[in-house]
Amino acid sequence: MTSDIRPHEKLDRAVIFLGPPGAGKGTQAKELARRFSAPHLSTGDMLREHVAQGTSLGQRAQPIMSRGELVPDSIVLRMVAERIERPDCTHGFVFDGFPRTVAQAQWLGELLKQHGFKQPLVVHMVIDPALLLRRITGRRTCKVGGEIYNVYERPPKVEGRCDNDGGELEQRADDREEIVGPRLAAYEKQTAPLAAYYRRLGRLRDIDASKSVDEVAASIVAVVNDARKL
Ligand code: AP5
């Protein structure tokens, strides 16, 4: 299923990962980006980098993120517009955690049109909500390369260390159990309506995100390949 991608093949559009916190968007978006040598654009990672560097943007975003709420569009849209101007985005890119509201999606649609991109493909990660808490509280991320692990489901070979580069694994500040509820509530209220929005446009593909990482990855590659044939 996944072997029909040759190394030189490029993504020809934006692929958007949509789904609740802990559904596996980051895990799968990174993998898809790797396969197509396309940039992985995670607004969450970009914001966390600003927070870590203590930029003024990071200082504004940090208290909002630590409450599990969405950061205002005035911050996020500028960050995205600047990022997709870069030359590595010419052939397409993988969005992880963006857009997150219908207003962001409408803005993005216009931006993609202006840049001459095809309409995006939206990978909708559909998951049994009972799995989310374990996935979120078990998550550990490499401080160096950002690789994602899970102490229950996908542990590293050596505890606390990344398999790829030996980097220290850390827990995200918003992965504490008491922040998970507000994050899921924000998703239901502000982001879940995006599924209906993109379904109406014929852009949405449902993926069963409850399965194993490899099974989910194979389903995603299949829908991306189907879309590229059209
Ligand atoms: P963001 O970083 O985007 O977080 P999120 O959407 O809450 O999603 P997560 O990163 O928690 O989960 P994921 O779906 O990527 O799962 P993962 O692959 O890691 O946003 C953080 C914050 O930034 C927001 O709350 C908001 O404040 C702000 N923000 C970001 N974008 C914004 C925007 N556009 N507008 C406004 N504000 C914005 O997997 C989870 C765990 O499960 C891992 O441990 C993994 O190893 C494991 N796992 C994955 N797949 C499987 C599988 N198939 N089987 C078993 N385990 C699995």
Polypeptide structure, described:
Helix 1 (25-35) packs across helix 9 (213-229) and helix 2 crosses helix 3 (56-66). It is built from 9 helices and 8 strands. Strands 2-3-1-4-8 form a 5-stranded parallel sheet, with helices on both faces. Strands 6-5-7 form a 3-stranded antiparallel sheet. With 230 residues, it is an alpha/beta fold. It has helices spanning 25-35, 43-53, 56-66, 73-84, 102-114, 132-137, 177-191, 193-200, 213-229; strands at 14-18, 40-42, 93-96, 121-126, 139-142, 148-150, 169-170, 204-208. The chain binds BIS(adenosine)-5'-pentaphosphate.
For the structure shown, list the relevant keywords:
230 residues; alpha/beta; 3-stranded antiparallel sheet; 9 helices; 45% helix; binds BIS(adenosine)-5'-pentaphosphate
Topology:
Elements: E1 14-18, H1 25-35, E2 40-42, H2 43-53, H3 56-66, H4 73-84, E3 93-96, H5 102-114, E4 121-126, H6 132-137, E5 139-142, E6 148-150, E7 169-170, H7 177-191, H8 193-200, E8 204-208, H9 213-229
Parallel strand pairs: 1-3, 1-4, 2-3, 4-8
Antiparallel strand pairs: 5-6, 5-7
Helix pairs in contact: 1-9, 2-3
Bound molecules: BIS(adenosine)-5'-pentaphosphate.
In brief:
With 230 residues, the protein is α/β, with parallel strands linked by helices. 45% of the residues lie in helices and 14% in strands. α1 packs across α9 and α2 packs across α3 (56-66).
Helix content percent band: 40-55%
Which class do the helix and strand fractions yield? alpha/beta
Order of strands, widest sheet: 2-3-1-4-8
Please indicate the percent range of residues in DSSP E strands (runs of 2 or more): 5-15%
Low-confidence parts: none
> Describe the biggest sheet?
5 strands, parallel
Report the bound ligands by name, code or SMILES: BIS(adenosine)-5'-pentaphosphate
Distance between the termini: 18 Å
Rg measurement, Å: 17 Å
Overall shape: globular
The average pLDDT is 93
Total of helices:
9
Number of E-type strands: 8
Spell out the helices and strands N to C: EHEHHHEHEHEEEHHEH
